[in-house]
């Protein structure tokens, strides 16, 4: 018995990046990047990044910048 993902993979196997991007309605560069990542690493999952993660979120950084601008005036 085939699962849905196996069935999709078999249908997309012989198609070009352009055809896949049209079928899935996503950019061709995204399809190409995922395929390249799969060939190099054997997975499309995100890999751990080097370095310490930021403590402050992007929203927090924007709020800090806006208060700096407000206080500077």
What's the end-to-end separation, in Å?
Answer: 68 Å
Q: Total helix count?
A: 4
The run of helices and strands is HHHH
- Low-pLDDT runs of 5+ residues are none
What proportion strand?
under 5%
- Rg measurement, Å: 21 Å
What composes the largest sheet?
none
Shape: elongated
| Quaternary structure state of the chains depicted | single chain
Approximate helicity band: 55-70%
Round the mean pLDDT to the nearest integer and report it.
79
- Category from helices, strands and their pairing: mainly alpha
Number of strands: 0
Would you write up a description of this structure?
The protein is mostly helical. The chain has a domain at 1-45. The chain has helices at 4-12, 17-24, 28-41, 58-72. α2 (17-24) packs across α3. The relative contact order is 0.06. The mean pLDDT is 79. This is Transposase. InterPro entries: Homeodomain-like_sf, WH-like_DNA-bd_sf.
